[in-house]
């Protein structure tokens, strides 16, 4: 059933470390071999062995309107003929900057980079340059990309592989990163009190999506906002996952909390490699060449990436009903999953907001990384493979969120629910 994928994985491991270009893809957490993809359209992916999957990863978020979304494909094809890169400014960069600053609250300016990692790395450098302070606070199980300073108590692949401290990250760099449990304000207050006037920023996923999906508890983000205001600290919302997914204006809009800097990735590039950092003029103009905080990129603002992102964002901006539809589809799926798990008699906890959700097999609420780690990962593994065999492609780790696409039909959701029922009966 997966013979070509197995062969390709064997070949890949000879020339690519671990056979993949990003760790979670390797299926290490769930075991078995990764499936190699051939093509995808709408809500479906097709592998090299001819198997079809309903996709709940959607390239980890970008394919919010489905794979090979026609207007995006057309725009890319058209613009590719004008050259794939100039290394000089284009009007398109201003156009997408204007669109994004009109969609997202509390930002005047945006700087384009090539990944979410770069965006978060730049946001921290900017916060340090702006405040003249070196340390920052992050949360256990949150993931802000793979820059050195973030690989302390990180989520996503770092959590999936169970890496506690990363070889190659110096103690000097790690010592400026302070970590607190998610949803734990007293721990943050303690860190701030113990490092008075030394903390440049608090960076947080306003809805955590890299240890499964974990919602901020009532008052958590408000509390961070207050702590930052009282101590001259910048609040950075890492909206690489939540930006343009939870609402047009991301978590800031949905949850009504103002951040000082926001980072983007994933949806912003419609599947092309794009990230961005945004904020008020007063802070953003500290970036070079307006200011002295250096940041650059040979391919930043790449025309193909920009037209892809612009086309997708414009569609989202013009059709806010998409967010209601995604929410309805998520609720429909979750009700079906609850039936499937209930019928199998397993304990479970489903976290959900908008079009992000995750399933942990545990009787306890999942509010932080410790809780997520304590869930039954063995059962998740078996569930993952049973679903894969039934044509449903879930994230290959319980430490990742499921991302809904609006290309899903009710029929797809019913097929998924039937697969979950049959999978649970087979593995329980
Ligand atoms: C994916 C992600 C990143 C990293 O983005 P890359 O494009 O993979 O570098 C950073 N922060 C969050 C919240 C993410 O989900």
UniProtKB/TrEMBL annotation:
GO terms of molecular function: glutamate-1-semialdehyde 2,1-aminomutase activity
Cofactor: pyridoxal 5'-phosphate
PROSITE patterns: AA_TRANSFER_CLASS_3
PTM-bearing positions, type N6-(pyridoxal phosphate)lysine: 266
Subcellular location: Cytoplasm
Keywords in alphabetical order: Cytoplasm, Isomerase, Porphyrin biosynthesis, Pyridoxal phosphate
Alphabetical list of Pfam families matching this protein: Aminotran_3
EC number: 5.4.3.8
Pathway: Porphyrin-containing compound metabolism; protoporphyrin-IX biosynthesis; 5-aminolevulinate from L-glutamyl-tRNA(Glu): step 2/2
Catalysed reactions, as listed in the record: (S)-4-amino-5-oxopentanoate = 5-aminolevulinate
Family membership: Belongs to the class-III pyridoxal-phosphate-dependent aminotransferase family. HemL subfamily.
NCBIfam families the UniProt entry points to: hemL, PRK00062.1
Assembly: Homodimer.
PANTHER family named in the record: GLUTAMATE-1-SEMIALDEHYDE 2,1-AMINOMUTASE, GLUTAMATE-1-SEMIALDEHYDE 2,1-AMINOMUTASE 1, CHLOROPLASTIC-RELATED
Protein name: Glutamate-1-semialdehyde 2,1-aminomutase
């Amino acid at each position: 059933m997966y013979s070509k994928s197995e062969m390709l994985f064997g070949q890949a491991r000879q020339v690519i470390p671990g056979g993949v270009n990003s760790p979670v893809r390797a299926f290490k957490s769930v075991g078995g071999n990764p499936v190699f993809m051939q093509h995808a359209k709408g809500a479906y992916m097709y592998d090299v062995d001819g198997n079809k999957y309903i996709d709940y990863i959607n390239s980890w978020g970008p394919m919010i309107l489905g794979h090979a979304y026609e207007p995006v494909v057309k725009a890319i094809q058209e613009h590719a003929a004008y050259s794939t890169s100039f290394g000089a400014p284009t009007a398109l960069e201003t156009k997408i900057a204007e669109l994004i600053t009109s969609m997202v609250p509390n930002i005047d300016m945006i700087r384009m980079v090539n990944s979410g990692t770069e965006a978060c790395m730049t946001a921290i450098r900017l916060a340090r340059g702006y405040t003249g302070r070196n340390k920052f606070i992050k949360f256990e199980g949150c993931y802000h990309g793979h820059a050195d300073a973030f690989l302390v108590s990180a989520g996503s692949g770092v959590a999936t592989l169970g890496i506690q401290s990363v070889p190659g990250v110096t103690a000097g760099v790690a010592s400026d990163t302070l970590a607190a449990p998610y949803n734990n304000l007293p721990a943050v207050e303690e860190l701030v009190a113990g490092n008075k006037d030394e903390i440049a920023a608090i960076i947080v996923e306003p809805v955590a999506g890299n240890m499964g999906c974990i919602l901020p508890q009532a008052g958590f983000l408000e509390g961070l906002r207050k702590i930052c205001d009282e101590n001259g600290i910048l609040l950075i919302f890492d909206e690489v996952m939540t930006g343009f997914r939870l609402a047009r204006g991301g978590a800031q809009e949905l949850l009504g909390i103002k951040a000082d800097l926001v980072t983007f990735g994933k949806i912003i590039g419609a599947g092309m490699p794009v990230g961005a950092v945004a904020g008020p003029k007063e802070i953003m103009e500290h970036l070079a060449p307006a200011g002295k905080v250096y940041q650059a990129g040979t391919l930043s603002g790449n025309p193909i990436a920009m037209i892809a992102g612009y086309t997708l964002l414009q569609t989202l901006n013009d059709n806010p009903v998409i967010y209601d539809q995604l929410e309805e589809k998520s609720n429909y799926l979750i009700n079906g999953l609850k039936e499937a798990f209930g019928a199998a008699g397993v304990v479970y906890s489903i976290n959900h907001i908008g079009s992000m959700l995750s399933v942990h097999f545990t009787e306890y609420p999942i509010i932080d990384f410790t809780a997520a780690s304590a869930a039954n990962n063995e059962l998740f593994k078996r569930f993952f493979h049973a679903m894969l065999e039934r044509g449903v492609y879930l994230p290959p780790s319980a430490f990742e969120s499921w991302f809904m696409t609006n290309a899903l039909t009710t029929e797809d959701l019913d097929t998924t629910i039937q697969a979950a029922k049959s999978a649970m009966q087979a593995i329980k």
